[in-house]
Amino acid sequence: MNKNERKLYFYSAFLITLVVNSAKLMALNSEGIIARYWEFNIGEYGFQFLYNMMFCLLLLHLNLAEGKFLSVFRANKQYWKLYAFNALVVVAAIVLGSLLHSMFFGMPQLPGGRIRGYFARFLLSSIMIAVVIRLVLLIRESRNKDLINEQLHLAYLKAQLQLLQEQLNPHFLFNTLSSLSAIVRENPSLAQNYILHLSKIFRYTLVGSGNNLVTLEKELEHLKSYIQLVKMRLENTVQVHINISQDLIGRQVLHLSLQALVENAVKHNRATRTEPLTVEIYEENEWLITRNNLQPVTSKAEGTGLGLANLNERYKLQLHQEIEIQQTTAYFIVKLPLV
């Protein structure tokens, strides 16, 4: 509970109490109807006001204290317990208030008038408190969404930065430019194709869709450029097989997710003509599967690129789901949920 919420509780409780007890102030007019049944007493009115305000503050605290009291019932969707407990608090407050009032200020002129008065005031107070509670919960929900969006945005920027760092690090540039230099000497027309795919990769990375989801078709189109670049650089020792039906290309995944998986496979596995690295991409039971044969390199690769951890964080923030990672003796498998 932050400072602003505490102020909101106090002001709401004060305003509700003032509203429901305002009728008693009419007794100040000796010729009014209320004065016929109740003689204004500042002490009695003060007790009634303070008790009502304490009741409002208690209900607000019980229902809105995060992680405690009735908020636990709400979090677990045990609404019948929530409503039953609130009802018990209201009834107990009415009975206790009536007894204390009679003890301090004597019995009322009308039999049963005091209990009915407490019932009317506290019922009205409860209704207005319910409205305040709902407003506070909506404010919290909006604030949490803003926080999640901010975290997601930061995670996405981190992913972009890591990917750009990987693409711009000396090792990547050396391999890329060395491959380009060799291709220019041997096949100038192929070099143009190489540069085209390289520019597409940078463009898709820099001018992406933010934190938004993209269609599988768009993500696969970008992946093809990356695959071509890898094949030209590693002389076709990497094979990527994509088996996605046309019915699924309209489904969605997170932007810049597939390249991370192929990049992870290329980085951490050896690829030779006799032992090519094979990456398979296919759909199974509402999951997009990326599987590669396991041929781990002897030396530890530098960096992790986009990183499976960062990709998993983005999926948790955006879709409230996690990616699945499995490793067998023969394969490394990553599963992405399809939207």
The percentage of residues in β strands lies in 5-15%
Structural class: alpha+beta
Order of helices and strands: HHHHHHHHEHEEHEEHEE
Tell me about the biggest sheet?
5 strands, mixed
Helix content: 55-70%
Tally of alpha and pi helices: 11
Mean pLDDT: 81
In which order are the strands of the major sheet placed? Answer: 2-4-5-7-6
- Secondary structure: number of strands: 7
Tell me the distance between the termini. Answer: 35 Å
**Shape assignment:** rod-shaped
Q: What would you report as the Rg, rounded to the nearest angstrom?
A: 34 Å
Oligomer: single chain
List the uncertain runs.
301-306
Could you characterize the architecture of this molecule?
- Helix 3 packs antiparallel against helix 5 (79-105), helix 5 (79-105) packs across helix 6 and helix 6 runs antiparallel to helix 11.
- The model is unreliable at 301-306 (pLDDT under 50).
- The two termini are 35 Å apart.
- This protein has helices spanning 3-20, 33-37, 42-64, 70-75, 79-105, 113-168, 170-186, 188-206, 216-233, 258-268, 308-319; strands at residues 213-215, 238-243, 252-254, 277-284, 287-293, 324-327, 331-337.
- The chain has 339 residues and is α+β, with helices and mostly antiparallel strands.
- The longest helix is centred in the middle third of the chain and has 56 residues, at 113-168.
- Strands 2-4-5-7-6 form a five-stranded mixed sheet, covered by helices on one side. Strands 1-3 form a two-stranded antiparallel ribbon.
- Strand 4 (277-284) and strand 5 (287-293) form a beta hairpin.
- It is built from eleven helices and seven strands.
